[in-house]
Specification:
alpha/beta; Rossmann fold
Length: 237
């Protein structure tokens, strides 16, 4: 396995320490479980997962990967650089007896060299804000998808509101996610993400925001992209 340089080892270690907690729906990954149905429905509406070959980049413990496999994807490959998270994902897929899912510890850049244009759909959720060079990830995702295939990114906007919501709100006041989960300076504005996508020869076809309702304690989709947002891109190469 070739170790790519586009990895922040402290980020990998952080998620590795949490590995056994991935599938505890009340634990530290509760927000991921809570937003997963919204993400899944959005991806399915835009890309029609039934019968598709899907790649999930930065899959962690497999929460999204597994739900896409269950939604009818022909095959799902989840990749991540945190081996402990992948071991958890593998184990959970075996327990769930899913045969259309597999996992590999490989960087997206290395996989792009190995399997160009191999996937109908590529998802890269909540990962760009955790790597040193997000543009490299985006280029690799563009390389991995088939012509006219769909690529999905989700990340967090960088502005005063996202600092209040994602850092002070989510990490400190509400304890939704562990303190130190996010570095606000690594957050990416929709304009920056759109530019990197266009430079990677991806067309932006849809943008979707997501917000958290404090009283109902639940996430919902919105047109507001101030804090959490997802981008649907289409390959034209």
């Amino acid at each position: 396995m070739t170790q790519s340089v586009n990895v922040d080892n402290s980020e990998i270690e952080k998620f590795s320490q949490l590995a056994d907690k991935w599938w505890d729906k009340t634990g530290e990954f509760k927000p991921l479980h809570d937003i997963n149905p919204l993400r899944l429905d959005y991806i399915d509406a835009q890309a029609h997962l039934q019968g598709k070959n899907v790649l999930d980049v930065g899959c962690g413990g497999g929460i999204l990967s597994e739900s896409m496999a269950l939604r009818g994807a022909d095959s799902v490959l989840g990749i991540d650089m945190a081996e402990k998270s992948l071991a958890v994902a593998q184990l959970h897929a075996e327990q769930t007896q899913l045969c259309n899912i597999s996992y590999r510890c490989i960087s997206v850049e290395d996989l792009a060299n190995e399997m160009p244009q191999a996937f109908d759909v590529v998802t890269c959720m909540e990962m760009l804000e955790h790597v040193p060079a997000p543009a490299s990830i985006i280029r690799s995702c563009a390389k991995l998808v088939k012509p006219n295939g769909k690529v999905f990114f989700s990340t967090i906007n960088r502005n005063p509101k996202s600092y209040l919501h994602a850092i002070l709100g989510a990490e400190y006041l509400l304890n939704l996610v562990p303190k130190g989960t996010h570095d606000w300076q690594k957050f990416i504005t929709p304009a920056e993400l759109a530019r990197m996508a266009r430079e990677a020869k991806l067309d932006i076809v849809h943008t979707q925001g997501m917000s958290y309702h404090l009283l109902k304690k639940q996430y919902y989709n919105t047109d507001n992209i101030d804090v959490n947002y997802m981008l649907t891109c289409q390959s034209h190469h």
